[in-house]
Protein 1
Amino acid sequence: MQFNSGGFLVFFPVTVFIYFLIPDRAKKIWLLLSSYFFYMCWNPKYALLLLFSTLVTYLVGLFIEDKGPGKKTFLISGILINISLLFYFKYINFFLDLLREGAAGLNIELNVPTVDVVLPVGISFFIFQALGYIIDVYRGDVKAERSFITYALFVSFFPQLVAGPIERSGHLIKQLKEPKKFTIDNAESGLRIMLWGYFLKLVIADRCAVIVDAVYADYSLYGPLELILATALFSIQIYCDFMGYSTIAKGAARVLGIDLMDNFHQPFFAVSVKDFWRRWHISLSTWFRDYLYIPLGGNRKGKLRSIINLLITFTVSGLWHGANLTFVLWGLLNGVLQVIEGIILSLLKKIKGYGNISWDKPGLRVILVIKNLVIIELGFVIFRAQTVSDAFMIFRNVFTMKPAELYAERTLFDYGLNRFHLYMLIAGIVVLFVISLLREMRKVRTDWLKNGREAVRVAICWVMMVMIVFSLDISGKEFIYFRF
Amino acid sequence: MTKKKVWLFILKCIIVAGPVILVSLYASFGMMYYSDGEVPYYLWNRDFCAKTHDRTYDVVILGDSIGQTSYITDELSEGTVNLSLGGTTPAENYYVIKEWLEKNKAPDDIFITFMDRHLLDSDCYYTRCLYFHRLPLSDNLEIMARAGEYGEPSIGIDDCYRELLAYQLYWPGKYTAAMVNSRFTGRHESNTMVYDMVNKGRGRFVYADVSYEGDEPVKLDSFYTNPFFDRYYRDIIGLCVEHGIRVHLVKPPMMDLFEFDEGYRRDIYGYYDSICSQYPNVSFDWFDEGFGSDCYADFAHMNEKGAKEFSKMIKEKYPDVFDD
């Protein structure tokens, strides 16, 4: 079930209504049943996979806490079982393809058949959340959860089950333990947050998708300006799509009285790639920081080792996004760019007077933001392209001017959006920019719709709703991060 | 949590949900203002069939857009009414005639005309029949249940009940595109004009009175039906026979660019003869001599000239039916 489906419009109010109506002792079971129902709307049999992963990590958590010396064995077993599930369901065919290509390079013909497997929705998210839990228990950061219902709910909590944010056990389990009471404040604030999430997804992301899909479907027909426009729109699309999902998830959880972490913090205002990753998909980047980069040694074991750790972390992070070399390359590129940034920074620091430069000056900051946007956009070309060679062809087309006669005469309306939808998209992007800027300047709160006078807030929500209503005819696209 | 706070919250929810409610209401009541040019005959058909008429119509025409464009009621007789609906299949037509027979005296004769493809699949059930709310919920539920039973894929889609609900509730996502394209009220005048025209012509609708200019020949070598549509087709005939109505299955002339071989001819006669032999008082006529392209507005639909010619042929063929 998708947040932007008619089914969710029925599912969510019913779930919330019954949750607050039933006795406290039944609340968790109800939420758990609802979460499994939510997941089973895609493919009922994969609920077994979710249950299996939950059961394994639940038992591993208990064993780790109970067995002193053997706890490392349990941790490794738990990690291996879950990573194996992830590998089989997500990467097996990718791995077999690589194997075949590698063998072909050595003139060996490998007749390994493709495995007939469907990628379970959200597998990367719930497995990472469960792995985070057993590592936390192993480290003693949290106590193993004794109640299976609470733990199963932690892994499957429906707002963030299929596309995050990847929550930490220490943050979410304790909230899930306590049955919540209905409050107007939570309901109002949650619904407002959800409205903003829908606005991002339906008004902006789905409209960007029309142009991006048209251009990327046959990039060879398009010139540099069109490819640049499509790539810029893709970055807005993926941001609004994913942030839209995370925001709706946060709002839905808030209505139930539960706080989820923020997943984005104005990433396009980042001044460096490193800064970008502090602001983009925060729950995943901090997961990799805490459970991969630091255990690898982080930056504690010398410069070379820290560079290698960084490259490993970002390559794995790229691979996490999907079984395609484009994602691996994208992850690696982000790692390499951060290494280069680090080198440049250390060289700059040696220049006399560097320490006196005020990096917070608006003009300088704007330059850095634009510079960073250009770099990030390059990465998004690789992320969006179907294959690595497609990505390089797109780069080539961007940087080589074709003879004028090869260009079809097009206007902005020829990419699938009519005048009305194009104006709506522009209006949506302007709203997003203004809100992001105000949040960046700390003029408004994260829950920015909480600002201002009541009447103004309701009016803003009303206008947003009008824009959403007039976006419904072109929406209905799946959230991009479901694929991961 | 005070009562005042709760009521204020509910009020705010209603206000914010206002655009959805308003657009749905407009979608429901303002169809003639924003919908495309096909809405008038769907609404006319709905209004006309829902009424019990003082006068008796002794000839009813059923079918899809071919039935709708080919027969000129005024050329045929005063007592002829055309209840054909563009884009429909026998499924929708079964409920149209059922409703008509429940409210009105049964006609003496019924002419049924569908293009071949509408016995094979449905291309407009969702975008026209559901969109314009031609049939009540119960009929649509029956159609979908039966489509599921027969495994018919064009109506029995995965999300059929969700789609049905969306149309029943006038979900904005289904209607806003037309509203925006019409600038909300821009189609009222033309739709009203068409409605009046359809009313005057007792159901006849002209898509466009132009001449087709293509010259690419099309070869037809086979004809087959889907069991789901065949079942409804036979149900229509069964219903008519039950009411003592003579049924005339008619295949009007196709454009002379269509070339059909013996296989096609054999399939057509094989199918229709099987129906004629199953029921009493059912005849099949195929006007297999094609008209020139100047008699068609597009590849399939007759223009005024073609329809006049065909109506004349029908009148001559059935002198005892059209005797006024």
Note: The radius of gyration of chain B is 22 Å.
Protein 2
Amino acid sequence: MNNKKGQLQIQETILVIFIFTIILLIGLTVFYRYTIDSIRADQERYEDFKFKVGISSIPSMSEIKCSFLGEQKECIDLDKAIAFSIYSKDYFSLFGYSNITLYLVYPGSVHKPVLIYYRKPAVVRQSQIISTPVLVYDPEYANYKIGKLVLVRYK
Amino acid sequence: MKRAQIEIVGLVIIVVIFVFSAIIFLRIYLASNPSTSLDENLLLTQKANNLANSIKGVDTCNSNMAQAIVSCCGAEPFCGRDACSFVSGEIAKIVNLTLSGEKVSVELKDRDGKTCASYGNGKCISGFVAASPSPIKGVSGEAEIYINMCKK
């Protein structure tokens, strides 16, 4: 009788440990998946924020920003932007998969758009577009125009 | 099953339901992403600042818009016509060409804070995000430009 009771208790303990292990594994899996999802969401939020900040950081890049005798001004130099568009493919680590285009819109410009940066992934699931007005200096005519800087982010 | 065992099973079920409810609530709460509206406001503020910088810097009619705005506040003509109507018309054109449908209000004030001209492209019901007032210097005086962008 005592022997049977002992066996029963051992079986009970094994069953409890087994169920506990199963619950622990399920808990760990759920926690792991939740953490991974959370990190991905944080990364997406960061990428989104970095993309939106682009409307202020891109016109401020010294590669395209106006400067007169070393003094910088809040505008985009059209010639610098055209020159930068040739070498901009090296800026993938900064811009990622995106399209940055400058359209001259005022006063009634006939200048064709400047494709400052362009890199598109093989498959585009989604794209996000933002734009901002920018002041553009045209050295050819030595005057200031207004442009529309359009940023497209490919996901 | 004894009564005590049934009660323990009931308690376990309640605890499990409670834990699951807490997890679901946390997921929904964390997924609501409160930083989005902050990002949107920052974006609009930056756009408003860029618009103010563009308006006051652009060249027009063999002079520049800054001078046109100062002339408007000084009740002087500009480009052979009333400076204020010229400025209002050009600002409307610039807003239409550069913004993507955002509602905006532009106000031009003289140094005493008196409104010289204003422009708005729609009624805003969700509140404004403002750019910091931008000072304008012309040949014949000074003025300020105030830009408000409507929240989405």
Note: Chain A has a mean pLDDT of 90.
